[in-house]
Amino acid sequence: MMRDPKTIEETVAKALEQQNVELVDLVIQNQGRKKLLQFFVDKEGGVTLDDCGELSDKIDSILEMENLIDGAYILEVSSPGVHRVLKKPAHYKRFINERVKVILKTPLNGLGFFTGNITAADDTGFTLADGSNTYRFEYDNIKKATLDPVLEF
Q1: Do 8 and 59 touch, CB atoms closer than 8 A?
Q2: Does position 70 have pLDDT exceeding 90, yes or no?
Q3: 3-state DSSP call for residue 114?
Q4: pTM
Q5: CA angle 140-17-70, nearest 5°?
Q6: Please, are residues 15 and 8 in contact by the beta-carbon 8 Å criterion?
Q7: How far is the CA of 134 from the CAs of 2, 23, 95, in angstroms?
């Protein structure tokens, strides 16, 4: 038995905010009889391995104290990485001029997948330029959006 993911996400996010840590994303998967809970966290200056260890202990105690999950679970805490997910308007605003990959719930002009740079973002949506066109997307039509940096070696 488990509370709904939104309740878990909101409860943990509130607790982490007090330490100036943002819960970027929560992914829950079945691992046999256990649940795998993957918490992706970030903070000013980035997240270290030590931070992940400390936050893992903190999140574990929150899950126990708030009785959010019954039974065995596997807990992972990590940074969002270079291909971090964008979920909130603040994420889009923070990454203006960055390259992103966007998958839409409902296709636009027959296309459901876009890659380009965020040129503007507000509380309802954002603008993406792909080099030849500029598109406006509403957040409620975004199935998934992730940073898509061009990595040079």
Answers
A1: no
A2: no
A3: strand
A4: 0.84
A5: 80
A6: no
A7: 42, 30, 17
Task: Specify the length of the chain in residues.
Answer: 153
Share of residues in the chain with pLDDT > 70 (%): 99
For the beta sheet containing 34-42, the strands, ordered from the edge strand earlier in sequence to the opposite edge, are: 22-31, 34-42, 73-78
pLDDT bin (cut points 50, 70, 90) of residue 1 is low
**What distance in Å separates the CA atoms of residue 143 and residue 113, rounded to the nearest whole number?**
10
**78, 126 Cβ separation under 8 angstroms:** no
Sign of CA dihedral 117, 97, 17, 23: positive
Tokens linked to 40:
């992706």
CA 106, CA 109: separation in Å to the nearest integer?
10
